[in-house]
Design brief:
Layout lengths: L1 E3 L2 E5 L3 H14 L15 H12 L4 H21 L3 E5 L5 H13 L4 E6 L2 H14 L4 E6 L17 E5 L9 H12 L7 E7 L4 H7 L6 H16 L9 E8 L4 E8 L3 E5 L4 E5 L4 E8 L3 H10 L2 E8 L5 E8 L1
Parallel strand pairs: 2-5, 3-4, 3-6, 4-5, 6-7
Antiparallel strand pairs: 1-2, 7-14, 8-9, 9-12, 10-11, 13-14
The structure holds S-adenosyl-L-homocysteine (SAH) and N,N-dimethyl-L-histidine.
């Protein structure tokens, strides 16, 4: 554990966790349809590329969620009385800044608990925030929110807000999503609230443009997954031979990102002793990003033992923030 003045950072990622990438690769690349979980995008370069995605004109979720938060943060803090913010998948913590500002104005601000797999993003954001908010205590958790929610410290006594923003919940398929929401609900005591950001169903062309931008940043972000595997598992993916693919599945109402092999190739992944064949045109699924309706969110909450209390959206109905409590 690393403690400097107001910042404590606790890491739950150790050597056993290096095996997680190895196991996911071994598992995902030997399936009949190749697939890898999106959490492996976020090494230091992947986190930087995600920050660039957030600035793209086509990628509406970040600026829309930010706009809703800026308009509603004071209401959310007045409604919840929260003084502690626990943020899962905190990234650069830009949105936390808005909520912490509202807590400061309300006179409740006490502690920020970011949790992220990306050590680089977490350490950098903690340094910036502690300089900005006098007296703020930061307890950072480097870990995987699917496995390390136990690493979140007990509440500091006041009401707390647990946030999962950016639409990250949409990166999980329905069953995993509900299990994760149930586990997150376990962090809530009476009076605590969950703040969940979700992207909403809309014109597929708008969604597809957001995941296939003209500048090619999302394509680079997608291919970065192969760089992570090459570096961490001593593999030889010919990265530039893989094309970025993004399409909206209208039945499932999610967008999929894939990487398509332009030519047949054989990849050696020495770190797991695996040889993988890709046929010409074969695709590897790297991410799903589900788009929601209010009904779907209410159903997911009910299945996870949560109840929707407040629903905040923008005037174009692009994105929503839901405030929920334990049932
Ligand atoms: N909340 C920020 C960042 C969203 S990007 C925003 O709204 O802009 C998703 C973030 O979640 C990244 O910082 C990534 O490193 C983190 N992340 C993804 N999967 C994770 C997991 N399983 N456990 C912990 N963090 C995860
Ligand atoms: C982090 N997550 C919610 C982003 C999303 O929109 O699903 C990741 C992303 N993938 C491509 N662009 C952004």
């Amino acid at each position: 554990m690393d403690t400097t003045s107001a910042i404590t950072i606790d890491s739950f990622l150790d050597q056993a966790d290096e095996r997680v990438l190895a196991d996911d690769v071994l598992d995902g690349l030997t399936r009949p349809f190749k697939e890898l979980p999106p959490k492996h995008f976020y090494d230091a370069r992947g986190s930087e590329l995600f920050e660039r995605i957030c600035e793209l004109p086509e990628y509406y979720p970040t600026r829309t969620e930010m706009q809703i938060l800026c308009e509603r943060a004071d209401d959310i803090i007045a409604e919840t009385g929260a003084g502690e913010l626990v943020e899962l998948g905190s990234g650069a913590a830009e949105k936390a800044r808005v909520l912490l500002g509202a807590m400061k104005r309300a006179g409740t601000l006490s502690r920020y608990v970011p949790l992220d797999v990306s050590e680089a993003a977490l350490a950098e954001s903690a340094r910036t925030l502690v300089d900005e908010y006098d007296g703020l205590e930061i307890y950072g958790v480097i870990g995987d929110f699917e496995r390390h929610l136990d690493g979140v410290p007990d509440s500091d006594g006041g009401a707390r807000l647990v946030a999962l923003l950016g639409g990250t919940i949409g990166n999980f398929p329905p069953g995993t999503r509900r299990r994760l929401l149930r586990k997150i609900g376990g962090l809530l005591e009476d009076g605590d609230r969950l703040l969940l950001g979700t992207d909403l169903v809309k014109d597929p062309a708008v969604i597809e443009a957001a995941y296939d931008d003209a500048a090619g940043v999302t394509a680079e972000f997608n291919r970065n997954l192969l760089s992570v595997i090459n570096r961490e598992l001593d593999a030889n993916f010919p990265i530039e031979q893989f094309d970025h693919v993004a399409f909206f599945d209208t039945d499932r109402e999610w967008i999929e990102m894939r990487l398509r092999a332009r030519e047949a190739c054989t990849v050696e992944i020495d770190g797991v002793g695996l040889t993988v064949e890709f046929a010409e045109g074969e695709e590897l699924r790297t991410e799903i990003s589900a788009k929601f309706t209010r009904e779907r969110i209410e159903a997911d909450f009910a299945a996870a033992g949560l109840a929707l209390e407040r629903w905040y959206t923008d005037e174009d109905g692009l994105f929503a923030l839901s405030l929920a409590r334990r049932q």
